[in-house]
Amino acid sequence: MRLTSYTDYALRTLIFLGMNRDRLVTIQDIADLHGISKNHLMKVVHQLGVTGMVDTVRGRNGGLRLKKEPADINIGVVVRNTETDFYMAECFDPGNVGCAYAASCALKGVLNAATAAYLKVLDGVTLADVLANQPAAPARDGKVSPLRLHPRVPVAG
Questions:
Q1: Beta bridge partners of 3
Q2: Of 52, 74, 129, 131, which residue is least crowded by CB atoms under 10 Å?
Q3: pTM of the model
Q4: What is the three-class DSSP state of 144?
Q5: Helix (H, G, I), strand (E, B) or coil at 66
Q6: Does the structural domain 5-131 have CATH classification 1.10.10.10?
């Protein structure tokens, strides 16, 4: 499974906002940190606002902030809201009827089960879980430790 850049930017935005709960953040702050297009990020932030995850404050001193608590933002929901489809192969597309193996292929069922398992894992993770694994909030000068999106694994000692 590969997430679109749109979903990647949505997740990065939520993480950044979660790490900076004490202040309003600008789209430019996020774009600068990650080296991504401000224009593309504006579309992402708009959608996060429509879904009720992000609050936008207009005006000269405006910015963005989380509208929900991190524990109430489910990563599976974010991914489902930002991805256009989960077609693992052409045969998943209802408009595609050209597969010669369609009548007897077991691969579609296997890929469907893999996609369901993938989404089930994401459904078990909240933004709070992701933030628990993050370093301190990035400095405004753009210097930051790399973000870790994997769960902490206890080290045997």
A1: none
A2: 52
A3: 0.78
A4: coil
A5: strand
A6: yes
